[in-house]
Amino acid sequence: MTDTPHRDVQGDTPRRLVVLISGRGSNMQAIVEAAGEPGSGAEVVAVIANTPRAAGLQWAQARGIATAVVPHDAHADRESFDAALAGVIDGHRPDYVLLAGFMRILTPGFVAHFQGRLINIHPSLLPAFPGLHTHRQALQTGVQWHGCSIHFVTPLLDQGPIIAQGTLPVTDADTPGSLAARLLQLEHVLYARVTHWLGQGRVQLLDSGRVLVHGEASRAFLLAADGVVQAGA
Ligand code: GRF
After folding, report:
1. What DSSP element (H or E) covers 228?
2. What total of structural domains would you count in the chain?
3. pLDDT (tens digit, 9 = 90+) per residue, 51-108?
C-alpha cells in the first residue's frame, strides 16, 4: 500500500466519482446531492448497476447523470464480470469509485486495480457483523450499539481502513426493519460528509492502513434524538 497524498491542488476541476449500485440507491442519491452542494469539490460522473432492475438508475438518469448496466448474470464467472465492470468504470476516469448498496463480492484483481480509490458503506460497526443481515445479527447478539462504516475496500470482505463510522443505540422494541430504517438516515449523512472530504482532497490512506482526514479531529458520528452529531464537534 502506498501513501496517497490527496491534498494536491486540483484547481477548479471536481474530483470524479463513479457510484455502483444494485437496488434502490438511496445512498447514491445522498452522494449525488452532496456532490451538488457548493464547494463539494466532487462530481458524480456515472452511476453503474449490475442489474437493470436497480431502481436508482432512473433517479440518476432523470438528473442527467450517465448510467450503465453491467449485468452480472451475463458473465460466466466473477473474473469476467469484474473485468467488464472495471472497463466501464475506467471509461469514466474516476478519482474514486463508491460502492453504495452494491451487492456483489469483488475479485482481488478488481480491488487491486482500484486500490486506494475504492470505498464501501457497510451497515454495521465493523469489524462486527461483516456480510449480510447485519441488523438481525446485531439484535441476535444483543449489542446495544449498532451502526455503519465507510471504508476503503481490501480483498477481505467488509474489511479495510475505516474512513468514518456512525452509531445509534439499539432499543428493546427494535426489529431488523426498524434498525435498518434508522441506520439509513445515518448512512446518508455519513456518505454525504465523506463525499465532501473526498472532493476536497482531504482523505489520505497511509501506508500503515490507517486513514487521515485532514481537518477532522473525529470521524465518529452519532444518531441522536435531534439528528446526527459528530463527536467532538
Ligand atoms: C444500505 O443499507 C447499505 O449500507 C447496504 O444496503 C443498503 C442499500 O440501500 N449495503 P440503498 O440502495 O443505498 O438505498
Report:
1. strand 227-230
2. 1
3. 999 999 999 999 999 999 999 999 999 999 999 999 999 999 999 999 999 999 999 9
What cell numbers appear for 36 in the block?
A: 451538488
DSSP H or E stretch at residue 28: helix 26-35
Q: What residues make up the domain containing 115?
A: 15-230
**Which of 19, 22, 26 for mutating ligand 1's site (highest number of atoms within 8 Å of CB)?**
26
String of b and e for 49-60 (b: at least 16 CB within 10 Å)?
bbbeebebbebb
* Amino acid at site 167: T
CA of 123 to the centre of ligand 1 (A): 8
* Residue 122: strand pairing partners: 149
Catalytic residue among 72, 92, 113, 122: 122
Q: Is-catalytic flag, 113?
A: no
